[in-house]
What we know:
The chain is of the alpha/beta class.
Amino acid sequence: DYQGSHDPNDYAIGKKFDLPIINIMNKDGSMNAETGDDYQGLDRFDARQKLWDDMDAASLTIKVEPHTQRVPRSQRGGEVIEPLVSSQWFVKTEGMGSKALKAVEDGDIQIFPERFTKIWNNWLTDIHDWCVSRQLWWGHRIPVWYVGESGESEYIVARNEAEAREKAVDAGHAEDVVLRQEEDVLDTWFSSGLWPFATVGWPQEEGKEGSDLSRFYPASCLETGYDILFFWVARMVMMGLELTGESPFNTVYMHGLVRAADGSKMSKTKGNVIDPLDTVAEYGADSLRYSLVTGVTPGQDIPLNMDKIKANRNFANKLYNICKFVTGNALKDLSDSDLSDIAVSGPISKEEFESLSLPERYIVSKCHSLVATITNDIENYQLGAAGSKIYEFLWDQYADWYLEVSKTRIYEGFGGGGAEESRAARRVLVYILDVSLRLLHPYMPYVTEQLWHHLPRTDATSDQAAHALMLADWPQMNDENVLVTDEASVSAFESFQMLTGRIRNARSEYNVEPGKRISAVIVASGTLKEEIEKETKSLVSLAKLDPEKVTVVEAGSDEAKAALEGEEAIQLVIQDGVEAYLPLSGLIDPVKERARLDRQSTKLEKEIEKLGGRLKSSGFVDKAPPAVVDKARSDLAELEDQLSKVKASLEALPSA
Length: 656
């Protein structure tokens, strides 16, 4: 006889050669009558020891040699697991597996990223029958009823006991026949596999027009972790195709696992587990959500860095402050009719766009280009990249540039206050913030919803269940109605940004006091000269220039020659056709600057002399480690370079 019921390898061999399978163990781990009188009733561990002792006494053992082996243990109780042959219920998967394979092969289902398709094919090509029996106290009981008070030879599969009894009577049994339902429950993954359709009314609502099942099944995109592609996703697809005839979704988006900041697996033993509830309590749900979503690359694990969460909490604060400026300052004291006039009811039209000034055309163009990019990224499941682009636009373009420019339209102290330009600036401020909140809403739903309700907006439409951001239209609802942009305006304002940046850098290099306003001559040509001239007050505000001493002239003109004549100035080449000249007299006090540079020169000369002396010493060069000597030489070269720059600056100073 063959005993192969307590080792997987022995069992496989026995099945291969059609050997009889003998079970020698009871379910409590004790030996049964098949082991004989000497072992029957013994615990499994005691039986193993006695068997060895009996073999040793009969001189059947050769030697004792310890070795390490893998012993399976229960995850919950820690007990050693013993393989045991028993009656289990299986689902035949060959047919269902081939349907699931074909669904992906035919493009009915797309797995993203695509490399997981190979794993899908490998699993479903060599699929085994699925054991769905589980000996647990919770779960769906297997819908099988055994006929009679004992035994399992005759059984009925039915939806419920009434149906089982009806089938039993049809099979010739009495109406009061004893039916016993199987006590095993279905595998968790079996129950989970029903989720796409059972949760929306299957099977009760099959074929009913307007039902939840007809509206929500099949679904579009399933987002889940790559580690359960086979355990859950494959089961949903197999069961969906088998029971409904349709794939449960058309796209499977695989995200990675959340790991510690260093990429290691989170573990209580290591002490690197981040509790999301604690993180939400300290930094907010949106900060954590945004960090996770923008940190994801499809199919790759996500290292969760607390510094990033803090930075994104700061981003949420930045959003609040932006909204506070727009609603609490820019829109302050406006009447209800004025607020209604600038409320967002849809995309800015081409006609309105063309009536705007350069900074407004620029920020609207950048915003509309962002909408197209974000829409495309999200449709192609580049979720992390899309979220990061919204962050960069809001912080680097809207807050750092346009909010500052808008002050020169709205406030008299900045040179603004005109009715038309202030109305246009307020309109664009609200429009860009509204669109940005719509784009950001999927990533930071709570903050954006709260802030959106503070903006002027049109009344809710009749088909909206609530007047909420989560129900508002996406900024671009279709590919046909392309949002208006103008590359010439973008290019012109980028030249303006470069001009402003170069003047700011020059102020820093010459240590100009932050509050001091300086003079400048801007040389440009053609349309760009006209645009810069129109935005002189913006340049004055952003670059801290003296409004009485700023001139914008045509390149090569007599006016340009006259403006530059007879004064020493720094020349800043911004781009081809655009230059700026900053008179030195406005940048620095020659006497104070010469004294400062003299002090710096003296200090550098002393350091060079000291370090040069060390390098001339054979005791240092011969005895010090090569790396130390090389660093000293590098430091000396850097000091000498600094000294040459200081001397050049001294020579460039105008005479006192």
